[in-house]
Amino acid sequence: MKKTWVWFWSVFIVVLGGFGFVYWNMWQDSPQREGEKAKTAFSTFTTRWQYGQFSNMYEQLSTKTKQQITKEQFTQRYQNIYEGIEAHNISVEPLYNGPVQPGEDGTIKLHYRLSMDTFVDPISFTGKATLVKEKQGEGEGWYISWNPSFLLPDMQDGDKVRASTIPPKRGEILDRAGRRLATDRVVVDVGVNPAEWSQLTPAGRKQVSDILRLASNEVAATVQAQSSKKTSFIRIATLSDDDERIFQLTGTKGIVLQKKQVRYYPYKEALAHLIGYTGSISAEEYEKKKAEGYRSSDKIGKTGLEQMYEKRLKGSAGGRITIVNADGMDKKIVGERAAKNGDTLKLTIDAELQKQIYGELKKEAGAAAAIQPKTGEVLALVSSPAYDPNDFVLGMSTDKWNELNGNPQKPMLNRFAHSFAPGSTFKPITAAIGLDMGAITPDEEKDIDGLHWQKDSSWGNYEVTRVSDHRAPVNLQKALVYSDNIYFAQAALSIGEDNFMQKAKEFGFHESIPIPFPIEKSTLTNGEQMKNEIQLADSGYGQGEVTMTPLHLALAYSAFVNDGNMIYPFLFQEEKHDPYWKTGVMSKESAKLVQNDLLQVMEDSKGTGRGARVAGHRIAGKTGTAELKQKKGELGQENGWYAAFSVDDPKLLLVMMVEDVRGRGGSHVLDSKVKRIFTQALP
């Protein structure tokens, strides 16, 4: 009986196994199993696609697809498309809804969802892939019938993808009245067609060079350097669209003229050092900026406000991804983002006042700063000589650059951002400190005889020298009117080093001026303290190691207008801040007293500032001549200074400095310049 059961179960298992084997083979060839195989193949394909593995994707393409495109062509084409549109964060998700099985034609249709970020807005769409079962190599499986619409909707064979940048309009820089200080204009690129250029005679080429005012060898070198590239246009110069040379070159064989828009600076040299200029981005700048969306063909701020406010002025580029047909016609916009134009910067600068001041200085090496002393608006920041920033935009010849760079007056140097010894224009600060400390009184007279003075024999052969001996006792007003060095040297010694340093620092020495522009700090000493009494005495009349920038000196003088408070400067109309940078740098009484004395400097018949008086207006001011020398006994360079402000209706406070005035009248070189500026500025 037991053997019977063993036999029964053995037969049953064999029969069941037979049925199982038959069923397994039937299931392997069933539509459901084929659907699973196709899904597995497609999942592998989409994963490779997501990671940009086009070479591996190619192995899964149908035979018919492979006959139409090589592996190298497939890989290169689609890598280039993705790189061109800056595709990243690519996601390709197969969509399987219910059972999958072959259709009547034997193919399987599978859907997928593709999403990716691009250099414009993200792109997302649902596509459909066709899989065919075929034998490739030694095996049989499901392969993908590829077509270009897999990558982008509606893309067909022969179509191309065009990725174009929509550049933003760079923000303008305006003055207080809305005058354009930095804007755009149309210019003309002058170029040569190398094929036609080579056929010109040497005389013909020279004629073109002469018209453009370029050296023949410079033009030849430019053309030769670019001729290896397959191009029909090599730029050799850029001219403004109204330049008469354009008409001379029109129709010249080999010459090609192309219009374009560039940055333009209407006030040219007058505002060069403040506004700066733009230029082509360098390789080093591009490496630093490319993560911010910059391209190697972009322009970028190189100096001045153009550089400092590059991010705000530039704006952000837009872009467009377009499918283009075989004829080069736009077929469909796949993705688009509008450009965001740069911000407009509105300054407190008065461009016409700036232009006038520069006009007064342009033949000199010097600097100036002008402010509205009651509000702190910076009206002008001038450095002379300067350069035309448009020359950098249009492209500067080697000769022009050498001329500019070799100019002994250093037009590339921004003088208003540098500090210089202020000379006698510092004396009113010493006066205010002395009055507040009780070291001097307005009516106290000092008997000073002769042109030279020293405290005692401990000074050796060092003496303080004044311009003239007035042979009379000197009080504070006379000392300012006559600009008496000895009086203020003695005043500094009476104040004492510690008090002098402490009170003078309250004016903002060794601090950055709170405006958004890099300006040197003014200094009282190069070290922590004075070297000796001689340095203290010299500091009292603006020599020693005292240095000031024109703007800082103007801010210090604003305390004489604002009851002892230094106004807070601002350069942008949008700025919000406290009214004063420094409060109580001198008492209200001292401020008023020194202001009256400075009025006499201009109005007294013997005052050093009388040459700049303006009829019908009361102007207070102080002149100064600072001598720069390495050692006693030598003649150093002399710089002339002028600081002046209108009294009855304080609208303008002006500080000017001119270098190298020795033998030309010292600070009186500035008399007529200051007078003309106030005459025009005051109603």
From TrEMBL:
Its main location: membrane. Residues 37-159 form the NTF2-like N-terminal transpeptidase domain. The keyword Protein biosynthesis does not apply. Residues 366-678 form the Penicillin-binding protein transpeptidase domain. Residues 165-328 form the Penicillin-binding protein dimerisation domain. Pfam families: MecA_N, PBP_dimer, Transpeptidase. Signal peptide: none annotated. InterPro entries: Beta-lactam/transpept, Beta-lactam/transpept-like, MecA_N, NTF2-like_dom_sf, PBP_dimer, PBP_dimer_sf, PCN-bd_Tpept. The keyword DNA-binding does not apply. The chain crosses the membrane at residues 6-24. Keywords: Membrane, Transmembrane, Transmembrane helix. It is found in: Membrane. PANTHER family: PENICILLIN-BINDING PROTEIN 3, PEPTIDOGLYCAN D,D-TRANSPEPTIDASE. Belongs to the transpeptidase family. This is Penicillin-binding transpeptidase domain-containing protein. It comes from Brevibacillus choshinensis.
